């Protein structure tokens, strides 16, 4: 059975004229059966690349048929065409959106993916014009048939990983289009959904496998919030079993691909089967929890990674979050969305095979995008204020809860993925942009940002294995500083260049210490 939903316009009226908005007439948190929302954001895959061929299983999904194509050259009317195929493997290509004209005056034609890939690396046009057969991603095949997906969810900004991940929790990237080493040192200052929840008496937890990327937000470096960070392997399943998951849960993945512990974030060229195993592990832990009947799991991707998608990206009526304009040369106004990405909704309150299409509100131009997450969290938990004009505008997805009673037939386990990548992890590989940013953030946490090596010399010759070791050591040093005491709970934890570690190992050190360290 398949259920197709168009979201109704909410009763509450919302305005986004000011940066901080207060909603009127919000539903109380008790009116929703959901008490815990779990967020998992994977890396760099478009909707058509991951789920386009799912249209063969469910014709209501806005996917692909094989007739879709891109020219090698958009300026040559006789250019060879590359058609979309279904033989994608683990994938070797990934490149963020780029354009010589970031604010085009017309609706995007979606015909430049092959050209962009070919310009980046010869022969890569075919790689970005491929998608996975449903059987190649069995975990997603099961989730799509047993729960729900959204086939019109866009990245918040046509840019790389980091800006889009910031929109997930703060509905803005604070003017960031890419890496900004100066802002990275200070930490991004915008208010996040974490603080909104805390102010209203709700709990949150971040379960990380490497130093958490959420520490890019300056306010989360406050001493009082460090207790909200939990090492995934040590605490996630335990908290699920004990029914101790907080109201808002963020699950972070392994971003560095090592022989001993492969990356499971789906970033090209990481093995997608590892990402499937990770989603399976998260789902099965949640499914076994006594909190299961009060949960909603949202799985999405930060951006498209250069892979083809046929749905034009919205360019009309998208509000700038905070009127911050991007730097030269584009002076981007943050008034358009990025490429469509895969999004799943998983809960016993969702009918099998649910598909959410275009929303009907709260405004005529509203869309599902990453800011829909804080917007929906605000609505379900009856929080006081919106974070920016963007989450005030974004569509909310509480309508995916489309049952009067929770289901009792949800699968206890998901299919076992089969390894896709024929080769092993390449630990000597150069770092991706996001991996460089994680290293630079780690340098801020342990005080190395005052070194002459920061920011670029630190990462320019670093390998994946070296980076993984560095970020773990940096985070351990940061935790050592936390355990020394004498820091006020509202103070931002900062380290100088020279910080001596205490000899002892207190509970807080063990609490934060990353389990995985590559020596």
Automatic annotation (TrEMBL):
Organism, by scientific name, is Gossypium darwinii
Matches recorded under PANTHER family: NON-SPECIFIC PHOSPHOLIPASE C4-RELATED
Q: Which InterPro entries match?
A: Alkaline_phosphatase_core_sf, Phosphoesterase
Q: Which GO terms describe its biological process?
A: phospholipid catabolic process
Q: What is this protein called?
A: Phosphoesterase
Can you tell which superkingdom this protein's organism belongs to?
Eukaryota
Q: Which residues form the signal peptide?
A: none
Q: What GO molecular function terms would the record report?
A: phosphoric ester hydrolase activity
The record's family statement is: Belongs to the bacterial phospholipase C family.
Keywords, sorted A to Z: Hydrolase
């Amino acid at each position: 059975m398949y259920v197709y939903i168009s979201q109704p316009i909410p009763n509450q009226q919302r305005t986004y004229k000011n940066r901080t908005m207060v909603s009127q007439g919000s539903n109380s948190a008790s009116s929703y059966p959901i008490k815990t929302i779990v967020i998992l954001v994977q890396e760099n895959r478009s909707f058509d690349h991951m789920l386009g061929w799912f249209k063969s299983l469910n014709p209501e999904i806005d996917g692909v048929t094989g007739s879709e194509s891109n020219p090698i050259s958009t300026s040559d009317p006789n250019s060879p065409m590359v058609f979309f195929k279904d033989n994608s493997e683990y994938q070797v290509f990934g490149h963020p959106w780029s354009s010589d004209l970031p604010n085009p005056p017309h609706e995007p034609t979606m015909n430049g993916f092959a050209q962009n890939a070919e310009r980046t690396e010869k022969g890569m046009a075919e790689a970005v014009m491929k998608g996975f057969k449903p059987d190649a991603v069995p975990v997603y095949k099961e989730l799509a048939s047993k729960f729900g997906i959204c086939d019109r969810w866009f990245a918040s900004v046509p840019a790389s990983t980091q800006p889009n991940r910031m929109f997930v929790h703060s509905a803005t990237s604070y003017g960031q289009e890419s890496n900004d080493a100066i802002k990275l040192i200070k930490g991004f200052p915008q208010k996040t959904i974490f603080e909104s929840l805390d102010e209203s008496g709700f709990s949150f937890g971040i379960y990380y496998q490497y130093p958490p990327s959420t520490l890019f937000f300056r306010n989360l470096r406050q001493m009082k919030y460090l207790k909200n960070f939990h090492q995934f392997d040590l605490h996630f399943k335990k908290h699920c079993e004990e029914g101790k998951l907080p109201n808002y849960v963020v699950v972070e993945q392994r971003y560095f691909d090592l022989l001993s512990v492969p990356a499971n974030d789906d970033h090209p060229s990481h093995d997608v089967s590892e990402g499937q195993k990770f989603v399976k592990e998260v789902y099965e832990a949640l499914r076994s929890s006594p909190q299961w009947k009060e949960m909603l799991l949202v799985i999405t991707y930060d951006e498209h990674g250069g892979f083809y998608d046929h749905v034009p990206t919205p360019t009309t009526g998208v509000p700038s979050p905070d009127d911050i304009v991007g730097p030269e040369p584009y002076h981007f106004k943050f008034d358009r969305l990025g490429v469509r990405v895969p999004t799943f909704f998983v809960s016993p309150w969702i009918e099998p095979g649910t598909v959410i299409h275009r929303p009907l509100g709260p405004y005529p131009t509203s869309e599902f995008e990453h800011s829909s997450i804080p917007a929906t969290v605000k609505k379900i938990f009856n929080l006081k204020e919106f974070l920016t004009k963007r989450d005030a505008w974004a569509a909310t997805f509480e309508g995916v809860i489309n049952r009067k009673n929770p289901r009792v037939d949800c699968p206890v386990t998901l299919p076992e993925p089969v390894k896709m990548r024929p080769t092993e992890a390449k630990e000597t590989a150069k770092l991706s942009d996001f991996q460089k940013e994680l290293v630079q953030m780690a340098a801020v946490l342990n005080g190395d940002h005052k070194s002459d090596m920061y920011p670029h010399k630190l990462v320019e010759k670093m390998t994946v294995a070296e980076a993984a070791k560095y970020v773990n050591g940096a985070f351990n040093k940061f935790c050592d500083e936390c355990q020394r005491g004498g820091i006020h709970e509202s103070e931002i934890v900062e380290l100088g260049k020279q910080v001596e570690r205490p000899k002892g190992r207190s509970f807080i050190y063990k609490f934060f210490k990353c389990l995985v360290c590559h020596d």
